[in-house]
Specification:
Structural class: alpha/beta
Distance between the termini: 16 Å
Number of helices: 11
CATH topology of the largest domain: Rossmann fold
CATH class of the largest domain: Alpha Beta
Radius of gyration: 21 Å
Strand order of the largest sheet: 3-2-1-6-7-8-9
Order of helices and strands: EHEEEEHEHEHEEEHEHEHEHEHEHH
CATH superfamily of the largest domain: Glycogen Phosphorylase B
Length: 389
């Protein structure tokens, strides 16, 4: 069977992991897939049956991206780097993939060059085709010209294909990376990568959906705490104003002290439930009357594919403009309401929620065929491998 090795490194949230999983799901069962996870393990996070998952020693960062940190604090960063590199090279040699897909690199994750350059060097020497898997908007750098020069050099030296998981009618990669035309590899827009939306029936209808449900979430939970704190403080105001139930998911990475603080804030309130994580998040999204969240790629795709009303707060840590660009574009289309940090005052925020629940969003259509189109592109690359052989 044709073999695909997929490398994914999440260091702050869960978005890269979720998108990568859906892409892998679309490659099954036609291909044998080895999935390399370089981020913190989420025990409740399910992978599709049939995927070989290899967890290399995990690293993470903080919201300001101030260096890499081992998840296992008994090891130094240098020790973890050596262990990761050795494990990666061993897995590659044993699995012998026909195609290597690397998520985000070299447009990001360049701090992982210590392992990714040796990996692509080995792949190139083995005749393995190399693909970069990229979201619609990438992080810009302080010295953008130098950054783009390095990206072009690495792409043209090692990569055979770039897959942009977006709809170019909504946003083109050139808006955050100006030198797409200087790339010598194949470049394809796949459409957005989305999760399958479950059908609502009596069997899977959520009990909390029996009255108007407000769904609040912040992805993995390492950031967005101010959004959930504000909503928790607004619960008494909302309880007096309208019938509803708030289902809040803090994310598996939220610090325990913040989780307990939120629980204490809403103690005695009957209009809110706080949990860390669910693997049925999309079902909650589909049955919600309003979603309140950050504006990361996957949460935004959930919002768009389920047609739920949404209020979204962009993450701006490390001067990252990705979520701001996405939120502003969607608000301009009338699809969502963008939230600013200035809105995070309990009384003001409660009024905005009440008012927005009366509005109907503009249900703009996007290309959501990213999973199927990615599989098609990979299939064409396999055909090229066979012709070359």
């Amino acid at each position: 069977m044709k073999k695909v090795m997929f490398y994914c490194q999440h260091i702050l949230g869960m978005g890269h992991l979720v998108r990568s999983r859906e892409i892998v799901r679309g490659l099954l069962p036609e291909y044998q897939v080895c999935f390399i996870n370089g981020g913190e393990i989420i025990k409740e996070f399910p992978f599709p049956t049939g995927v070989e998952v290899v967890n290399i020693p995990a690293v993470k960062t903080n919201t300001e991206f101030q260096g890499l940190q081992p998840v296992d604090t008994s090891l130094s960063l240098d020790e973890v780097k050596e262990l990761r590199l050795n494990k990666l090279m061993k897995v590659f040699a044993e699995f012998q993939p026909d195609i290597l897909i690397i998520e985000l690199f070299p447009f990001g994750r360049r701090s992982f060059s210590f392992e990714l350059i040796p990996l692509v060097e080995q792949a190139k020497a083995s005749g393995t085709k190399i693909v970069s898997s990229l979201r619609d908007i990438v992080v810009t750098k302080q010295n953008q010209e130098r950054h783009e020069e390095k990206v072009c050099r690495l792409m043209n030296q090692y990569f055979d294909m770039l897959l942009i998981h977006g709809d170019r009618q909504f946003v083109e990669l050139e808006e955050s990376f100006s030198r797409v035309d200087d790339l010598n590899c194949q470049v394809h827009y796949t459409g957005y990568v989305t999760q399958p939306v479950p059908k609502v029936n009596e069997e899977n209808k959520l009990s909390s959906a029996q009255k108007p449900m407000i769904l609040a979430s912040v992805g993995g939970g390492r950031f967005g705490h101010e959004l959930l704190r504000c909503l928790a403080k607004a619960t008494p105001i909302l309880e007096r104003a309208l019938p509803h139930h708030i289902q809040m998911f803090t994310g598996p990475f939220m610090p325990e002290e913040v989780f307990q603080e939120l629980q204490a804030t809403v103690a005695g309130r009957t209009n809110i439930t706080i949990d860390r994580y669910t693997d049925r998040f999309l079902a909650y999204m589909q049955q919600a009357d309003l979603s309140i969240s950050m504006s990361g790629y996957n949460t935004t795709m959930n919002i768009l594919s389920t047609s739920v009303r949404a209020m979204i707060l962009p993450f701006t840590g490390n001067n990252d403009q990705e979520q701001t660009i996405r939120a502003q574009k969607l608000e301009k289309l009338g699809r969502v309401k963008a939230i600013s940090p200035e809105d995070l005052q309990p009384e003001k925020f409660a009024d905005q929620i009440i008012n927005y629940l009366q509005e109907q969003p503009n249900l703009t259509t996007f290309d959501f065929n990213g999973v199927a189109n990615t599989a098609t592109c990979i299939g064409k690359l396999f055909s090229q491998v066979e012709v070359a052989a």
